[in-house]
Amino acid sequence: MSSDASPIVQKLWNYCDYLQDDGVDYSDYTQQLTNILFLKMADELTKPPHKKKSIIPKGYDWETLLNKSGEELRDHYNSILKKLGTEKKLLGLIYRGSENKIRAPAKLSKLIKLIDGESWMTLSVDVKGEIYEGLLQKNADNSQKGAGQYFTPRALIEAIVDVTEPKLGQTIGDPSCGTGGFFLQAHNYLNKKYEKTMNPDQSKFLKEKTFHGVDLLQDVIRLCAMNMYLHGIGDTESQIKEADSLLADDGQRFDIVMTNPPFGKKSKEKAWSQTGKIEVNSTDYERGDFWTTTSNKQLNFIQHIKTILKPNGKCAVVVPDNVLFEGGAGETIRKKLLEQFDLHTMLRLPTGIFYAGGVKANVLFFDKKIPREDGKAWTKKLWIYDLRTNIHFTQKEKKLARADLDEFVKCYNAADVSKRKEDTKDEERRWRSYTYNEIIKRDKTSLDIFWLKDDSLMDLENLPEPDVIADEIKENLESALESVTELIENLKNK
User: Residue 60's pLDDT is what?
Assistant: First the structure.
């Protein structure tokens, strides 16, 4: 984080501790700050040198907060949130469902003065974005629920964008966009790469039509919309919408999809039974464009992505290990993916990089192809980079850095993937390829492939922490139980 952004992040975050006594937790604070910060910046845009027409309705703007105090301030602020939540476009998206959780008028007044003390629009887009990213990062650091659940490591996002190599004029989709991490990094990548050659039309396309995101959670949508606005993406319109991506094909198609769908294998819904108890039911998504029906969310996201990608489009998707080996629908989807797409790369991620404990995940990279007339599979060779065996990171002392992914990026060879190299003489190599025929012969077409010796299995002193081991056992048992349950359901339906 830059020297300009860091002090402001710390100042704003320190105030959160002050508000905790009022019952405002870390995730609430980021939301409250978003509401107030947007009002201040909208006000600054109406003044020199910008002199733009205010997008905030008269009587509900920043200036009306500055001359009030006590309960009058609190009541007026509540009315602002209610009014803006009924607006359309970006304004309504950011404020819809918002409520003031800073009950003490004196504390609300202090936060407003804290925000008023900075000239936000004089800061560069990069610095404003860094400030907000810094707050989201602290939110995730302090809350393994909330933001921590959907916060993808920035180092991983940077590496994924670097090897995907987006180009000006391409559309980029994320059906589970979270706070917009992939969009922001892609925007930064494109700005830097084409800084000297970008014409006005290309600049307008980048700002208004390149990025398209969907997420299910209203609070997350609000954070994402604000995050993108602060980074100079979009204007009064928002490229983000609140919806369940898996429900239907909305017809949009993208050149690139980069996404990290939420962890948790089952799609579930709650309902009241006749006895008055809450029952949790698994949700199967019945879609004609899907290869098969399953309640496994990650498998359904794979199927959704195959639909929304344009021909020759690129995808990078983060998936948990169960997507690689689960039977039934999982095997069907893996076979279809290998046959109809070029599944050319897999990055096996280390443990300890996500806030959810014990998560074992991977990144699948594949390209969409037009149907072949000869009936052969599009995937010829799958290249795997093992960044997991004998490697472990933490959220505090040993965080994943972009440099930790340098070797993977080099091996990926995005400039020409057909010229990748493998050192077959090095038995400890982390980069290795498997042919389509080798993979298709594996039990259940499993992609859960390792070849390096795991030292922790040989040396008791190198075993993971007990909670990590317990989470892994739980994950394996749940996956096995779900496979058996799916088998029983299939047998009943025959």
Answer: 96
C-alpha 261/C-alpha 323 separation (Å) is: 12
Residue pair 40/111 in contact (Cβ under 8 Å)? The answer is no
Contacts of 46 (CB under 8 A, 6+ apart): 52, 53, 54
Q: Are residues 46 and 116 in the same domain?
A: yes
| Structure tokens belonging to residue 137 | 């990062």
Q: Is 196 helix (H, G, I), strand (E, B) or coil?
A: coil
Q: Is 166 left (phi over 0), alpha (psi -120 to 50) or beta?
A: beta
User: Is 414 part of a structural domain of the chain?
Assistant: yes
Tell me the C-alpha distance between 202 and 172, whole Å: 15
Torsion 352-354-356-359 (CA) sign: negative
Domain membership flag for residue 245: yes
d(CA 57, CA 8): 29
**Both structure tokens of 303:** 């199927």
Which residue blocks in 309-427 are alpha helix, DSSP H?
322-325, 329-340, 406-412
**230 and 223 Cβ atoms separated by less than 8 Å:** no
Q: What would the pLDDT profile of 308-318 be if each residue is shown by its tens digit?
A: 999 999 999 99
pLDDT in tens, 58-97: 999 999 999 999 999 999 999 999 999 999 888 888 898 8
Give the separation between CA 30 and CA 341, rounded to whole angstroms: 40
Radius of gyration of the chain (CA): 24
Choose among 293, 279, 323, 300: nearest CA to 475.
323
Q: Full-prediction pTM beyond 0.90?
A: no
431-435: strand order across its sheet: 240-242, 211-215, 172-174, 254-259, 309-320, 361-368, 341-348, 381-386, 431-435
Is residue 262 in a domain?
Answer: yes
Cα 485 versus chain centre, distance: 30
- For every residue of 70-96, DSSP letters joined together read HHHHHHHHHHHHHHHTT--HHHHHHHT
How many structural domains is the chain composed of?
Answer: 2
The answer to whether residue 397 sits within a structural domain is yes
CATH of the domain at 29: 1.20.1260.30
Nearest one of 332, 276, 289 to 444, comparing CA atoms: 332
CA–CA distance, 306 with 257 (Å, rounded to integer): 10
Q: Is the pLDDT of residue 271 over 50?
A: no
CA dihedral 26, 260, 330, 488 (to 10 degrees): 20
291/289 Cα distance (integer angstroms)? 7
Strand, coil or helix: what is 271? strand
Task: Say if residues 103 and 57 touch (Cβ distance below 8 Å).
Answer: no
Which residue range(s) make up the domain with 26? 5-136
